[in-house]
Amino acid sequence: MTQKFDVVVIGAGPGGYVAAIKAAQLGLKTACIEKYQDKEGKTALGGTCLNVGCIPSKALLDSSWKYYEAKDHFAIHGIEAKGITIDVPAMIGRKANIVKNLTGGVAGLFKANGVTLLEGHGKLLAGKQVEVTGSDGKTQIVEAENVILASGSKPIDIPPAPVDQDVIVDSTGALEFQSVPKKLGVIGAGVIGLELGSVWARLGAEVTVLEALDKFLPAADEQIAKEALKTFTKQGLNIRLGARVTGSEVKKKQVTVNFTDADGEQTIVFDKLIVAVGRRPVTTDLLASDSGVDMDERGFIFVDDQCATSVPGVYAVGDVVRGAMLAHKASEEGVMVAERIAGHKAQMNYDLIPSVIYTHPEIAWVGKTEQQLKTEGVAVNVGTFPFAASGRAMAANDTGGMVKVIADATTDRVLGVHVIGPSAAELVQQGAIGMEFGTSAEDLGMMVFSHPTLSEALHEAALAVNGQAIHIANRKKR
């Protein structure tokens, strides 16, 4: 007998599992389909983010930063530490345990909320029927009143550097190195390339990042991107802009990479090469030809502002639809869709989705950049405050970077908050909360911020917008 559900979710990543839990909490009979298996052959929930993305990379970023600090920065605190070494397999093992705990946690949440887990590959058929194919090849059909497609994304492959997960790896392989490569190449100076490159650079690898674009971090505010490039270069990352990879050859556990840049054709040899040129939606065998759901030529599913597809009752969220490929964006889309299915008029504010790069210093922003606003012809006032003037940052020996607040010159409404420095993501989130409620720079400036905190840098930057900063000299108004 065919199982029937109010909601069937395909994919248990940050978009899918959150949608399933929310739908169940709203009283809908819900099933979630997941095919991903861990190394032990067991179904693992959480998608790319929990298994081979956000979480494991943060574990390695934190471990490598602690090692780097102990080796190079403890002396300033009066702490003597000699002969410090890194046990890479132990670091990788810790990461694996964190992943196991979190994926197991999602399974526990499914049980607690009454979500039915269906193990296997989900495919949408006509009439909102879903075919589930188990790892043993057996199939079953389930019926749904509503279907949420949340199949996620995977790394993009490029012909000049085919991944073998040994010498040439993608982001997944870069989380599994058992020793520190002497010379490491990274193709792509985006979020993933910079994070993974910085992990292995801190542990002693000589890292070269090859970026095809001439501009560094084009999505970030120019002032912040400029500061970031300067900082990463100082940290030892060799970032080559305008470097287009044309080919590669693996020989004797090394890879020779050919690329062209402003100086012509170049060759460089690495022990390991990470390909991090972006991600693409996973829609292979997701939709039957008569499912009625439309996709574009790049494999993204067409949806409206509320994530509804061309078929009534079928929705898609996360990396398979337009917009930033971010776990938190996927999760909130999942919540919005579950609430809409339950009859609520949920909306999502796509203008205020924070972006974060978890390097050290962190880089984060929300709202618009100064160059975007300039292009739109919006007159703005800008306030910045350097962490070098923050007492809390000085006490922590972490004074690099700044906070930047951009406000409308006429209304004083905050249009963007951009940070490079300690706890950048947390400070930007404070800005996002204020912006959600239509804050002005003056509002932020009038609030009481506890002292000494890093948050005071946001307070001072907001004051600086109107030339009222206390702890730095204000720019003279022309």
Automatic annotation (TrEMBL):
<dbReference type="Pfam" id="PF02852">
    <property type="entry name" value="Pyr_redox_dim"/>
</dbReference>
<dbReference type="InterPro" id="IPR004099">
    <property type="entry name" value="Pyr_nucl-diS_OxRdtase_dimer"/>
</dbReference>
<keyword id="KW-0963">Cytoplasm</keyword>
<comment type="function">
    <text>The branched-chain alpha-keto dehydrogenase complex catalyzes the overall conversion of alpha-keto acids to acyl-CoA and CO(2). It contains multiple copies of 3 enzymatic components: branched-chain alpha-keto acid decarboxylase (E1), lipoamide acyltransferase (E2) and lipoamide dehydrogenase (E3).</text>
</comment>
<feature type="binding site">
    <location>
        <position position="58"/>
    </location>
    <ligand>
        <name>FAD</name>
    </ligand>
</feature>
<feature type="disulfide bond" description="Redox-active">
    <location>
        <begin position="49"/>
        <end position="54"/>
    </location>
</feature>
<dbReference type="Pfam" id="PF07992">
    <property type="entry name" value="Pyr_redox_2"/>
</dbReference>
<comment type="similarity">
    <text>Belongs to the class-I pyridine nucleotide-disulfide oxidoreductase family.</text>
</comment>
<dbReference type="GO" id="GO:0006103">
    <property type="term" value="P:2-oxoglutarate metabolic process"/>
</dbReference>
<feature type="binding site">
    <location>
        <position position="278"/>
    </location>
    <ligand>
        <name>NAD(+)</name>
    </ligand>
</feature>
<dbReference type="InterPro" id="IPR012999">
    <property type="entry name" value="Pyr_OxRdtase_I_AS"/>
</dbReference>
<keyword id="KW-0560">Oxidoreductase</keyword>
<feature type="binding site">
    <location>
        <position position="122"/>
    </location>
    <ligand>
        <name>FAD</name>
    </ligand>
</feature>
<dbReference type="InterPro" id="IPR036188">
    <property type="entry name" value="FAD/NAD-bd_sf"/>
</dbReference>
<feature type="domain" description="Pyridine nucleotide-disulphide oxidoreductase dimerisation">
    <location>
        <begin position="353"/>
        <end position="462"/>
    </location>
</feature>
<dbReference type="GO" id="GO:0050660">
    <property type="term" value="F:flavin adenine dinucleotide binding"/>
</dbReference>
<dbReference type="InterPro" id="IPR006258">
    <property type="entry name" value="Lipoamide_DH"/>
</dbReference>
<feature type="domain" description="FAD/NAD(P)-binding">
    <location>
        <begin position="5"/>
        <end position="334"/>
    </location>
</feature>
<keyword id="KW-0676">Redox-active center</keyword>
<comment type="subunit">
    <text>Homodimer.</text>
</comment>
<feature type="active site" description="Proton acceptor">
    <location>
        <position position="451"/>
    </location>
</feature>
<feature type="binding site">
    <location>
        <begin position="325"/>
        <end position="328"/>
    </location>
    <ligand>
        <name>FAD</name>
    </ligand>
</feature>
<feature type="binding site">
    <location>
        <begin position="188"/>
        <end position="195"/>
    </location>
    <ligand>
        <name>NAD(+)</name>
    </ligand>
</feature>
<dbReference type="InterPro" id="IPR016156">
    <property type="entry name" value="FAD/NAD-linked_Rdtase_dimer_sf"/>
</dbReference>
<dbReference type="InterPro" id="IPR050151">
    <property type="entry name" value="Class-I_Pyr_Nuc-Dis_Oxidored"/>
</dbReference>
<feature type="binding site">
    <location>
        <position position="319"/>
    </location>
    <ligand>
        <name>FAD</name>
    </ligand>
</feature>
<keyword id="KW-0285">Flavoprotein</keyword>
<dbReference type="InterPro" id="IPR001100">
    <property type="entry name" value="Pyr_nuc-diS_OxRdtase"/>
</dbReference>
<protein>
    <recommendedName>
        <fullName>Dihydrolipoyl dehydrogenase</fullName>
        <ecNumber>1.8.1.4</ecNumber>
    </recommendedName>
</protein>
<keyword id="KW-0547">Nucleotide-binding</keyword>
<feature type="binding site">
    <location>
        <position position="211"/>
    </location>
    <ligand>
        <name>NAD(+)</name>
    </ligand>
</feature>
<keyword id="KW-1015">Disulfide bond</keyword>
<dbReference type="GO" id="GO:0005737">
    <property type="term" value="C:cytoplasm"/>
</dbReference>
<dbReference type="InterPro" id="IPR023753">
    <property type="entry name" value="FAD/NAD-binding_dom"/>
</dbReference>
<keyword id="KW-0274">FAD</keyword>
<dbReference type="GO" id="GO:0004148">
    <property type="term" value="F:dihydrolipoyl dehydrogenase (NADH) activity"/>
</dbReference>
<keyword id="KW-0520">NAD</keyword>
